[in-house]
Design brief:
Largest sheet: 2 strands, antiparallel
Strand order of the largest sheet: 1-2
Order of helices and strands: HHHHEHHHE
Strand content: 5-15%
Number of strands: 2
Shape: elongated
Oligomer: single chain
Structural class: mainly alpha
Number of domains: 1
Radius of gyration: 18 Å
């Protein structure tokens, strides 16, 4: 591997077949570098499922925050510390459920789950914490690599896959 992360071609690897560009998944990235199936369970989760799961988790977190506060102040002007309660509930929900079960509530409803690159679940508290903190920053989620993974998954050593067809 060179300093930019590219794999140097050796005489042995020069004869290796190049990946078929038609084996790309619906997220636009090739799964060849991840050893994932192109379709079905175990394949990279597509954007509609990811966004749907995020919306479910965010709505559930807001409802839970409202139940905890029993006051609509977190959703009204002026901005106060209470405004961060829904975000904190979201972070705890995603972190704990991802660490323990490999999926949040939204992930489960949309048939997707977080796996370590070696396929093991659950991903554990450390990886789930890194992933969750990066999700809260938003930007790492929209920085996508050639395999279709966000920077949050890449830095946590995880991948979001479909758990059912």
């Amino acid at each position: 591997m060179d300093s930019l992360g590219a794999v140097a071609r050796t005489p042995e690897s020069a004869d290796a077949p190049t990946p078929d560009p038609s084996s790309e998944n619906t997220t636009g990235g090739s799964c060849s570098g991840l050893s994932l199936p192109v379709e079905g369970a175990g394949s990279l989760a597509g954007w509609p499922r990811r966004i749907g799961a995020l919306l479910v988790d965010w709505i559930a977190s807001n409802l839970a925050a409202y139940a905890l506060l029993r006051d609509g102040a977190a959703w009204q002007q002026p901005v106060t510390g209470l405004d961060f309660v829904p975000l904190a509930v979201f972070a705890v929900e995603v972190w704990l459920l991802t660490a323990l079960l490999g999926m949040s509530m939204g992930h489960r409803l949309f048939g997707i789950g977080v796996r370590r690159l070696d396929g093991r679940i659950p991903v554990g508290f450390g990886r789930a914490l890194v992933r969750t903190l990066l999700i809260l920053l938003v930007v790492p989620v929209i920085i996508i690599d050639r395999d279709g993974r966000g920077a949050h998954d890449r830095l946590a050593g995880t991948v979001l896959v479909r758990t059912r067809d």
